[in-house]
Amino acid sequence: xxxxxxxxxxxxxxxxxxxxxxxxxxxxxxxxxxxxxxxxxxxxxxxxxxxxxxxxxxxxxxxxxxxxxxxxxxxxxxxxxxxxxxxxxxxxxxxxxxxxxxxxxxxxxxxxxxxxxxxxxxxxxxxxxxxxxxxxxxxxxxxxxxxxxxxxxxxxxxxxxxxxxxxxxxxxxxxxxxxxxxxxxxxxxxxxxxxxxxxxxxxxxxxxxxxxxxxxxxxxxxxxxxxxxxxxxxxxxxxxxxxxxxxxxxxxxxxxxxxxxxxxxxxxxxxxxxxxxxxxxxxxxxxxxxxxxxxxxxxxxxxxxxx
Length: 307
Fold this sequence. Notes:
Layout: H1 2-13, H2 26-34, H3 41-65, H4 68-84, H5 92-110, H6 115-125, H7 132-143, H8 154-178, H9 202-210, H10 214-235, H11 239-258, H12 271-283, H13 286-301
């Protein structure tokens, strides 16, 4: 707990553990506010943001499905997945990103306007460098009609490109202007994180993935859900579903390249979005309803379930 608080406080003083933390300002500033009302600020911060994530998840699930049963199912599935990804390093920005990603899926499916994504980007860019995927989604929404023989949508393409450029510029500026030195012994100027790409871990992660461990199973499951989203979006000519599927597939792939698969905290922000994606694909798309009808009927005939 002391290390987590120190990592957060270090962002505010310009001396975080790593340069890569320096642009993650929103979480540390909010956590600092909790000190004024709590004797155990990190725990209470985590409780509040877990409740916010659950609330956001329930609202998004109900808006997407209009069914209480599926809303409860999304909540239970997300909670189980979160517990399965418990890690002793869960930073404040991990909790914030969980809420933002959940909202991103709702906006991606339901909103044709640009404003919700710009608003989401403002919070995202002050929380984590993954804000770049908000712009990437808009770019993909703009170009995805090509897959269906339609014209490119210039407005989301232009806005998306602008947000991608801003993501890189703001992240780089904050890291280089605010970072003074690492508080960890022997790290100093943290030259390993001077570049936007951070570390490359794909060789190590390849070994971990091929080990068929719990971690590789979790990672493979996440990738399969987003690949399924991409496939269904393409098959049903749903440009929004296709765009968010490709976006999150690339996000998951970025963890393989730049992250460390054993750090299961990296998967926690995905849990709400994963639950929403899976339930939406199964119950709100033609392909999903057809699959459920065929397979559930087969199980019923075999006596595996009661009808």
